Amino acid sequence: MSDVSDWWTTSIIDMEPGRIDLRGEPIQNLIGNLSFAEMIWFMVRGDHPSDAQARLFEAALVAAVDHGPQAPSIATARMAVTCGLPLNNAMASAVNMLGDVHGGAGEQAVTLFHFVTEHPGSLEQALDDWIDNEGKILPGFGHRFHTPTDPRAPRLMALVSEAVKNGACDGQFMQIGQAIEAELARRKGKPVPMNIDGATAVIYAELGFAPPLARGLFCLSRSVGILAHAWEQMQQGGRNKGPTPPAYRWTYKAM
After folding, report:
1. Do the domain assignments include residue 169?
2. Which residues form the domain of 24?
3. Partners of residue 194 on adjacent β-strands
């Protein structure tokens, strides 16, 4: 290392006193000209989305902002506030709950869609191979709370169809998602509709985001709901709330 400036290397930001350039563009040229969704795209990818791409991208971000206090991340934020933590700590605690099971299905669904596109065999064989390797639960389909249909998914898929017509994407991953949905219905003998994770995965795959970014983008989206719930709980008050009211007990099993 010849100089301390070699310690970090980035194409995202360059600055000196009186100047801040993001991806080569002065910050003052971006302020007021890019929406927050467009700024996310620009910072992560380094280019600008078309208007049609930006609308579809923003729709996915809006759709996943909240799913109520029964979601572990939201519950964590509210409990953290009652323990005396400020908003930033409550938000950090909640985002740290977004793992493979709660928060990871979008990334897994994008991975599944790419797996199907790259598989040399039929869709049926691709799904069988996925299940053999990853387990019988297909990410992005079915919902334990919203039966029969997650209300967010049909609206998002309608927007994908519109985006295809407007040239924002080509519809390849939309067709794959719909084909998986149809195959699951055939195998189960009943509908297994796409859920929010599957629909946003279709969008992120259509727009060219890598699978790990689907989880990162979900974290950004869900942070909005986390902040709202943490702030609401802060206004409501309450001290040291746990996951259940004090009168309830857990199940004790003697060893």
Report:
1. yes
2. 12-48
3. 141
**pTM, 2 dp:** 0.95
- Tell me, what's the pLDDT at 148? 87
Spatial CA neighbour of 116 closest among 204, 180, 205, 199: 180
pLDDT greater at residue 44 or residue 5: 44
pLDDT top residue among 243 and 107: 107
Q: Are residues 122 and 189 in the same domain?
A: yes
Task: Look at residue 247 in the predicted model and tell me its pLDDT.
Answer: 87
